[in-house]
Design goal:
alpha/beta, Alkaline Phosphatase, subunit A, nine-stranded mixed sheet, three-stranded antiparallel sheet, 12 helices, 12 strands, about 35% helix, signal, TAT_signal
């Protein structure tokens, strides 16, 4: 039996060969869970508070251009037309074939129940806990989902680097793999490592895999493409026994020069979704749902540095062959000042947990009562908006 590749064991041995680990600036740990049903679910946490108004632009709202000022988009400013009211940020233009195929959609004006303080830490905690109040539980909503389903199996654990996905933390066993390692070994150090590990086949194999996943060889990780490595790794697992994958994409906290600082995060998101589709292949992609969620939205008006500050209502992204895409879901509240939350933020008209709840219900068959009472305690799922095919 192959022994698990643990952080403690890795650090103990790496001290002999001078390895160094460096955290990725883009991504946190990826968590995976195997389960007996056939559909696949990918949950992406967009850490930093994505500006939904800049991503899915409501250019058809009569107050949009005035409210957004220099950040106003729309087809006339290079955005991709969606439905005559909303347009898509140009940096996500490569995803338009998914929209045309009905494999990309959005839900606008959504938020967790978290309000007013607008702390990233609190916002992410309540997003991953899936509760209506802070500190109500210690585990994550995806983990609670697994505790209610039969036949969930443990995968071999890989813990390399830093970060955690609280969304999958809890009593149910899941596997972890972290792409946050730059082994940064010279050819001489790699040869020394090979000699040292010759008599330890289990660690030799694990080290070789870690080296490959960290960047494909001796030169270390390509941090600029780390999101693609994560997407490919997740997709490869989902092609096998894994049914749920959760990971993060950072870089959404755009307090200044948003017209430039938002673009890299959007390009990483687009690349991630495209990589997932391509690596999964048509058959598995056809039964996959991807949901990308963020802790809260951003202010409607821009600030003095050309960015936006922490807000409330935002948008979530849906993708995959199992998604009924080609639509922007949700009830639009309007952007006139009287319609804004505290006269500064997009007013949430739906709980961000509700679309996720309907995806869980459709993909796994878990009954509504269990979802509302255990997975997302305090949630009223409302009506089924038809997010799945």
């Amino acid at each position: 039996m192959t022994r698990p590749f643990t952080r403690r064991g890795f650090l103990a041995r790496s001290a002999l060969i001078g390895c160094s680990a460096a955290a990725s600036p883009f991504l946190t740990r990826i968590s995976l869970a195997a389960a007996p049903w056939d559909a696949r679910l990918v949950v992406i946490v967009l850490r930093g508070a994505m500006d939904g108004l800049d991503v899915v632009q409501p250019y058809g709202d009569p107050d949009y251009a005035r409210a957004r000022g220099a950040l106003a988009g729309g087809p006339q400013n290079g955005a991709a037309e969606l439905d005559g009211f909303f347009s898509l940020h140009p940096a996500l233009g490569t995803l338009m074939p998914l929209w045309a195929a009905g494999e990309l959609g959005f839900v606008h004006a959504v938020s967790t129940p978290y309000r007013e303080k607008r702390s990233h830490f609190d916002g992410q905690d309540i997003l991953e806990a899936g509760t209506d109040t802070l500190g109500a539980v210690r585990d994550g909503w995806l983990n609670r989902l697994l505790t209610r389903l039969p036949g969930v199996e443990t995968r071999t654990a890989f813990a390399i680097g830093h970060g955690e996905m609280k969304i999958l933390g809890g009593a149910a066993p899941v596997a972890d793999w972290t792409p946050e390692v730059d082994l940064a070994l010279s050819p001489q150090a790699m040869q020394l490592a090979e000699r040292i590990m010759q008599e330890d086949p289990a660690f030799h194999a694990a080290f070789a895999e870690a080296s490959m996943l960290a960047g494909g060889g001796m030169g270390g990780a390509d941090k600029a493409g780390a999101h693609l490595e994560v997407a490919k790794f997740a997709a490869e697992q989902l092609r096998g026994d894994t049914r749920i994958a959760a990971f993060s994409i950072n870089g959404w906290d755009t307090h200044g020069r948003q017209h430039k600082t938002l673009i890299p995060a959007l390009e990483r998101l687009a690349g991630t979704l495209t990589s997932l589709r391509d690596t999964l292949g048509p058959a598995v992609w056809g039964k996959t749902a991807v949901v990308a969620m963020t802790e809260f939205g951003r202010t409607v008006r821009i600030n003095g540095t050309g960015g936006t500050d922490h807000g409330t209502g935002g948008a979530m992204v849906l993708a995959g062959g199992a998604i009924r895409g080609g639509k922007v879901h949700g009830t639009w509240p309007g952007l006139d000042e009287a319609s804004l939350f505290e006269r500064r933020d997009l007013m949430p008209t739906a709980d961000v947990r509700a679309p996720a709840a309907w995806l869980l219900h459709g993909l796994t068959g878990l009954d509504r009562a269990a979802i509302e009472q255990v997975v997302f305690p305090g949630l009223d799922m409302g009506r089924d908006a038809g997010f799945l095919r």
